[in-house]
Every structure is written in structure tokens, then in C-alpha cells.
Design brief:
Elements (H helix, E strand, L loop, with lengths): L18 E3 L2 E6 L5 E2 L1 H14 L3 E4 L5 E6 L1 H13 L7 H6 L2 E3 L14 H13 L12 E4 L13 E5 L4 E6 L2 E7 L3 H15 L45 E2 L24 E3 L3 E5 L4 E3 H13 L3 E4 L4 E5 L6 H5 L14 E3 L13 H17 L4 E4 L11 E8 L2 E8 L12 H13 L10
Parallel strand pairs: 6-7, 7-8, 17-18, 18-19
Antiparallel strand pairs: 1-2, 2-5, 3-15, 4-5, 4-14, 8-9, 9-10, 10-11, 12-13, 13-16, 15-16, 19-20
Helix pairs in contact: 1-2, 1-6, 8-9
InterPro entries: Cbl_synth_CobG-like, NIR_SIR_4Fe-4S, NiRdtase/SiRdtase_haem-b_fer, Nit/Sulf_reduc_fer-like_dom_sf, NO2/SO3_Rdtase_4Fe4S_dom, NO2/SO3_Rdtase_4Fe4S_sf
GO molecular function: precorrin-3B synthase activity
Keywords: 4Fe-4S, Heme, Iron, Iron-sulfur, Metal-binding, Oxidoreductase
Length: 447
């Protein structure tokens, strides 16, 4: 195994290729479909306690990563993961298993397509073809069966999104390529991955970098037209020259976006659900060994399994009872109105070598004053540095660590210039409280 490093741009840590951070090695455990049986969850909690610093991060790929692993405890941890059946045969096989799937796969009768059989099948195809091992580290696939917890809004390089009980919509880099029958879906998705590998330049790491060079079909059908590329025609959808893929019809104009808190955004989901599952949300995507062990116990007592989600939460399903008191006692979020669910925060210092401020700890301290903004639909990003690892899109309020203080920008991402001089936590709290009282939330209102 190569020496762990944090110098590779775009690198996602794994178990066989961990990443060094400020609090030790980060070891990511990739879970098939985010599924975690209670006994495995309890074993991972014990491993985090024995071989790391007990802290566990939930990722946007529905995996978990242990923090604070030491050089001398890394091999014992890997041995334990192997015993649990959670260690891949190689670092290359581990890296290519970037598949996000519906959290309730196999458990949701309302889903048009049960993607559970496809999840492992896709992983095995990716592992078994060395060609796919050259896909960039963050290149990922998505299998959305629809239903109660659809993955609308969750991005992936190549996505299969159920439209009915017989077809998926095939997407690449966010562009619709067409409709594909369920039985041909994996072949179509892997064909797109092959095309990416054929077209990409060395500095192109994501499907969005290449999708504009995928040819369009003629109106008469796939494969009958002179090849042309995306450009002004992007709005009518992208065709894919593969058997079994139907040309999409031009999309209808989208309706007005739903008000904050409505629609298909599941990031604010917490507590019991009428469909028979419970969401335990971890503040800022972090929990500790005690909390994971406690969730495993709750699930075991009620005959449920654990499912990790791309919204950095854990589902307990199927579940016929309300376990709010049990989960709440663990210190996890069970209220969908908790403002921490609308705040993206990276670990920050000292956990991260790049961090210039303790982002997660400070986000927790700022949550009471930020709650007023969140209630009005604002999104918040607290970043320990300008890299913005916790959120790559703009937020209503963005705080960026600068030498132990925070700059602030509105309707911007973490790389935007600060609109104020860096402030201490106390100064920032007073500044935000004043703006809230004045109902002054936008950058234009600060000048």
C-alpha cells in the first residue's frame, strides 16, 4: 500500500488508500447501497473506537469514514474490515465503486423500479473490467428507483432515474440522453462510461466536462443522422447512439420552484415517516462511535436495518414504531426544523490540515442566530477554508475561515471575496443578529 498523502487533487480516501488529515488518517468504508446491518454497524462503531478517535463522518456518497486512525492501528483496522466483508481486493476496485442508490431500495413498494438487484451488479461490472479502473476518483453513478425517497437533486456523472416500471431516464453530466429499458440499463450506463474514457482529456475528470461532445441523433431516430455536438441544441436533450435508448422529447418548461422546505429535497428530513422508516440526522454529517452503536441497538431491537443516505443521515427501516425518544437520547437530530440541517460545515481545524477555523464547532455555536435565516429559506455554508469541501454550490450565507476568524459573503460560494473584514465568532454573531433584526439578508443590502 502506498504512503498515505493528502496532496492528490480530487482524491477521495478509501480504506486501502487512506488520506492523512489533521487528526490522523481518514479511512472511508464504502457500503453497497448504503446498507448496514445492525451487527455490522456495531462492529464498525467498536472499530472506530479501538483504531481511530471515535469520530465518524457520513459522506454524500452514502458511505462512512473513520477519523483519527494512526499509522500503527491502520493494519489492524483493515484486518477487521476484511473480517466484516467490507474490504475490497484492491485500491482500484475500491475506488471505482462510486454508486449512489435509493436509500429504501428493496423496501419501498411505491418505487417504480426496485434498484436493489442492480446496485451490486453495477459494482461487479465496474470492478471486473480493468478499463473502468481508470475512471477518475470522484466519477460516480446513481441508481434512482423513485418512490418515497427519490434522488432528485442528487448529482452524479451517470444517472439512471426511474420514470415508470419499465424505463429509466439515462443522464450524463446532468443532461438527459434518453430513455432506456430497465433490463438494458446497466449496459447503457456502462456504454456512456466507455464513451467518457474515449473522449476525455487528461484534465477532464467529470462527465460534465465531456458531455458537450457527445453526438446528437436526428429526429428520425438514433444513429441515422450526421454526427453533431451539443451547443445551442442542449435544451432539447441529448440522444445516445446505443440500441435500446429512446430519443427524449423536448422538455416542458419547468414550473416555479417549490418554496423552501417543500419539494423533493430530502436534506431536511428527520424523525419518523409515515412510509415506515425513521431518519436520524447527524449534525453536519458527523457522529461518534457511541451514537452509531446506539443506532445499531435501536435497529436490532425493532427488527430494522440501517441505510446511509446521500444527505448525510441514517435511516432505520422498515420500522412500525416511533423511536424518537431512543434516537433523540443519542444526541442525533430528529426534528426536521433543526437549523443545523440547513447548514453545511466541513470539519475545519484542527481535524483538517487546510482548516483556518473550527468550522463544525463554530457552526454549532452559530446555529441559534442562523436559525432565523434558515426559517426564511436561507442556506448556510461554514467552511474552514476557501476550498469549500462541504458545499460546492453558492449558499445564501457563506462563512469562510481566515486565520481563526470568518469572512462573510452572500449568495456566493466559498471562493467569493469576503464582503466584510474577517470577524471573530462574537463579532459575527452580533453582525448576523443585527442583520436578522433588520430583515437584511442579501449582499446588496449590506452596502
Amino acid at each position: 500500500m502506498s504512503e498515505p498523502s493528502n496532496q492528490v487533487k480530487g482524491w477521495c480516501p478509501g480504506a486501502l488508500r487512506p488520506m492523512r488529515s489533521g487528526d490522523g488518517l481518514i479511512v472511508r468504508v464504502r457500503l453497497t447501497g448504503g446498507e448496514l446491518a445492525p451487527e455490522r454497524a456495531a462492529a464498525l462503531a467498536e472499530a472506530a473506537r479501538r483504531f481511530g478517535n471515535s469520530l465518524i463522518d457520513l459522506t454524500s456518497r452514502a458511505n462512512l469514514q473513520m477519523r483519527g486512525v494512526r499509522d500503527e492501528t491502520l493494519q489492524p483496522l483493515l484486518d477487521r474490515l476484511a473480517e466484516l466483508g467490507l474490504l475490497d481486493a484492491s485500491a482500484a476496485a475500491e475506488q471505482v465503486r462510486n454508486v449512489i442508490a435509493s436509500p429504501l431500495a428493496g423496501l419501498d413498494p411505491s418505487a417504480p423500479v426496485d434498484v436493489q438487484p442492480l446496485i451490486r451488479a453495477l459494482e461487479l461490472r465496474l470492478i471486473g473490467n480493468d478499463r473502468f479502473h481508470s475512471l477518475p476518483a470522484k466519477f460516480g453513478f446513481l441508481l434512482d428507483g423513485g418512490g418515497v425517497l427519490s434522488l432528485d437533486g442528487v448529482e452524479a456523472d451517470i444517472a439512471l432515474r426511474a420514470e415508470d416500471d419499465a424505463h429509466f431516464r439515462l443522464e450524463a453530466g446532468g443532461e438527459a440522453l434518453g430513455r432506456v429499458r430497465v433490463e438494458e440499463a446497466l449496459e447503457a450506463a456502462l456504454s456512456v462510461a466507455e464513451r467518457f474514457l474515449a473522449l476525455r482529456q487528461p484534465d477532464e475528470r467529470r462527465m460534465r466536462d465531456v458531455v458537450g461532445r457527445i453526438p446528437l441523433p436526428s429526429p428520425g431516430g438514433i444513429g441515422t443522422s450526421k454526427r453533431k455536438c451539443l451547443g445551442s441544441t442542449r435544451s432539447v436533450g441529448v440522444g445516445w447512439e446505443a440500441e435500446g435508448v429512446e430519443v427524449p422529447t423536448p422538455p416542458r418548461p419547468s414550473a416555479d420552484p417549490p418554496p423552501p422546505g417543500e419539494g423533493k429535497d430530502q436534506s431536511r428530513l428527520a424523525g419518523p415517516h409515515a412510509a415506515g422508516f425513521f431518519t436520524a440526522a447527524a449534525p453536519f454529517g458527523r457522529l461518534d462511535a457511541h451514537q452509531l452503536e446506539g443506532l445499531a441497538g435501536v435497529a436490532a431491537r425493532h427488527g430494522a436495518t440501517l441505510r446511509l443516505t446521500p444527505w448525510r443521515s441514517i435511516l432505520l427501516a422498515p420500522l412500525a414504531v416511533d423511536v424518537t425518544p431512543e434516537v433523540s437520547s443519542l444526541g442525533l437530530v430528529v426534528d426536521p426544523g433543526d437549523p443545523r440541517l440547513a447548514i453545511a460545515a466541513c470539519p475545519g481545524s484542527p481535524s483538517c490540515l487546510s482548516g483556518e477555523a473550527p468550522a463544525q464547532a463554530d457552526a454549532g455555536r452559530l446555529a441559534p442566530v442562523l436559525a432565523g435565516f434558515v426559517e426564511r429559506g436561507a442556506s448556510v455554508h461554514v467552511s474552514g477554508c476557501a476550498k469549500g469541501c462541504a458545499r460546492r454550490t453558492p449558499a445564501s450565507i457563506t462563512l469562510v475561515g481566515q486565520g481563526g476568524r470568518y469572512g462573510i459573503a452572500f449568495d456566493a460560494d466559498s471562493k467569493a471575496p469576503s464582503e466584510t473584514e474577517p470577524m471573530s465568532l462574537g463579532e459575527l454573531t452580533a453582525f448576523l443578529a443585527k442583520r436578522l433584526a433588520e430583515k437584511s439578508f442579501k449582499s446588496s443590502e449590506q452596502r
